[in-house]
Amino acid sequence: MDVLITGTTGMVGKSVLKECINDKRVKNIYLINRLPVNLKSPKISEFIISDFLKVGEVKKKIKNCDACFHCMGITSFGQNSEYYYRVTYEMTKAITDLVYSINSNSIMTYVSGEGTSTKENSKIPWANVKGKAENYILNRGLKDAYMIRLGLLIPGDGIRAKTKLYDLFYTLMRPFYPLMKLFPTITTSSKLGLAMINSFYYPLSDKFLDNRKINKLSQLHLNK
Q1: What does the pLDDT look like over 53-75, one tens digit per residue?
Q2: Residue 184 — left, alpha, or beta (φ > 0 → left; ψ -120 to 50 → alpha)?
Q3: Which residues, including other chains, have CB under 8 Å from residue 208's CB and lie 6 or more apart?
Q4: Closest CA to 20 of 151, 193, 211
Q5: In a 3-state reduction of DSSP, which class is residue 44?
Q6: Sheet holding 28-33, edge to edge
Q7: pLDDT per residue over 115-151, tens digit each?
């Protein structure tokens, strides 16, 4: 499988990337970032672009894409609404169009969040923008697509959050990780990465995956 991953300089994207590097089912990894991820692997081809709305410019450099793991995103807290819309919806639209143009028979997973509104009628603005992005991916015509309604994620393998407030939270909670991992409503960086890879091999009728479903999906390949 050849995969395209966005947002690998962030905690979620880097988690997925590391799992893809270690998984023998993944042959080639194409990264689209604004800054270098600084991880080395013969699987990786990285493209640095400053404007994701021009992401189509890298199309000729990507030989194939069986799956796109779209992990790029920003918090809505303290963000200008226009900038949040641009990053969350417009850039997602550009990435989706790129994937479709490379291989319409590919799948796409999008890291959204709990509380996202696909009806786009929430009183919370970010929930509507996320919902709009989800709807575009689901209706673009790809072979399959899954919306990752991510809740609390426990990072592993030295991965840290870029946002200082989140990083402080994880630092304070680290002693409780062993206990937290016992809860089915909490997932880990490894399980998230495995679930995304497994989504290509084990199609699901449910297109909206919360932490419980992520945990179950991450285990499917172990039962085969």
Answers
A1: 888 889 999 999 999 999 998 77
A2: alpha
A3: 118, 146, 147, 149
A4: 193
A5: strand
A6: 44-48, 28-33, 2-6, 67-70, 107-111, 144-148, 208-209
A7: 999 999 999 888 999 999 999 999 999 999 999 999 9
State the residue for tokens 């419980």.
212
Q: How far is CA 22 from each of CA 1, 26, 111, 177, 191, rounded to the nearest angstrom?
A: 13, 8, 21, 23, 13
DSSP secondary-structure letter at 15? Answer: H
How many other C-beta atoms are found inside a 10 Å radius of the C-beta of residue 70? 27
Please name the helix (run of DSSP H) or strand (run of DSSP E) that holds residue 32, with its range, or none: strand 28-33
85 near 123, Cβ under 8 Å? no
The one-letter amino acid code at 207 reads K
The pTM score is 0.92
Q: How far apart are the first and last CA of the chain?
A: 18
Q: Considering Cα of 138, then 71, then 128, then 195, what sign does the dihedral take?
A: positive
